[in-house]
Amino acid sequence: MRFTKMQGAGNDYVYINGFQESLPDDLNRLAISISDRHFGVGGDGMILILPSTKADAKMRMFNSDGSESEMCGNGIRCVAKYVYDHGICKRTNLKIETGAGVLSLDLLCHNDRVEQVTVDMGEPILESARIPTLLDGSPVVNRTLEIDGTTLQVTCVSMGNPHCVCFVPKATDELVLGIGPKIEKDPRFPKRTNVEFVEIISPTEVRQRTWERGSGETLACGTGASAVCVAGVLTGRTERKILNHLTGGDLILNWQEKNNHVFMTGPAVEVFSGQWHG
After folding, report:
1. What is the pLDDT of residues 87-104, one digit of tens each?
2. pTM above 0.85?
3. What interhelical angle do 222-234 and 73-85 show, nearest 10?
4. CATH 3.10.310.10 region(s) of the chain?
5. What's the sign of the alpha-carbon dihedral 80, 81, 86, 91?
């Protein structure tokens, strides 16, 4: 089975072209095997690029632990690049079906290759029951979360998948690697949650580290960066358009007031292709 390794701001996945390749029945097991960084190709997970009846292509995203997630902001930019660069659809405006709905993407090309992609991430979901979270309030904005002796002020947002955003003076290993996995699996998040630890640089600039549901710390998280943009506005910390410095690269986020949609712009890179015999 052919695969392609791609990354967006360091958030790397193994991509499989379902237009051409035959897929096994047990996709969860395949995701675990192929994502393994020692015995497999290695990545934060696996993404399938499939035919769609309602869009130019369909994306299914699996974390490295085999669990399926609704959406991946960095992943969908790479899907758009693959769809265009490999001739599945040669339009610079694409629609991609995801578990969070059909999203629109605008492609910036150079020498007929996609370099940057802007994704319309849609409207943020703030109702606690839809995120979902059992924390008090709806929306959950600047709520106190005590976990394992640590007290944090958190804001919860769904961008098609759940996020718990924590603004902190310093995104330390103790927080990201120690507290992040405990928040992810806390019973107050019935479907688990992604966790963002965010340092404010200025009203238009932040720095983010992410503990990603089902994958651990990743170098970037596009849905998480989008949630951070929303949370920054809701808590009065940032403006609607921000530059977000993630460990693997930068993303530009814009929560537009006119239509309530969050737009994310960032890179998409093809790393290598190969044959999987696992």
Report:
1. 999 999 999 999 999 999
2. yes
3. 130
4. 2-120+266-275, 128-260
5. positive
**List of E strands, 21-75:** 45-50, 57-63, 68-69
206 CB-contact burial (10 Å; exposed 0-12 / middle 13-18 / buried 19+) = buried
**Which H or E element spans position 207?**
strand 205-212
Low-confidence residues in the chain, pLDDT < 50: none
The DSSP bridge partners found for residue 269 are: 7
So what CATH class is 2-120+266-275? alpha beta
**Tokens describing residue 85:** 């660069």
Was domain 128-260 assigned CATH 3.40.50.1820?
A: no
Pair 198, 164: CB distance under 8 Å? no
Distance separating alpha carbons of residues 182 and 128, to the nearest angstrom: 19
* CA 59, 224, 176, 250 torsion-angle sign: positive
Q: Which residues are catalytic?
A: 72, 221
Q: Closest Cα partner for 192 from 32, 46, 65?
A: 65
Would strands 241-246 and 205-212 be described as parallel, antiparallel, or unpaired?
parallel
Three-class SS of residue 30? helix
pLDDT of residue 241: 98
Q: Give 127-165 pLDDT, tens digit per residue.
A: 999 999 999 999 999 999 999 999 999 999 999 999 999
**The token pair that represents 211 in the structure block:** 């503990």
The two structure tokens encoding residue 27: 């996709």
CA distance 44 to 21: 21
Residues sharing a CB contact under 8 Å with residue 61, sequence separation 6 or more, in sequence order: 13, 45, 46, 47, 48, 68, 69, 70, 71, 72, 75, 98, 99
Contact 262, 253 (CB under 8 A): yes
Max Cα distance, the chain (Å): 54
Strand partners for 114: 109
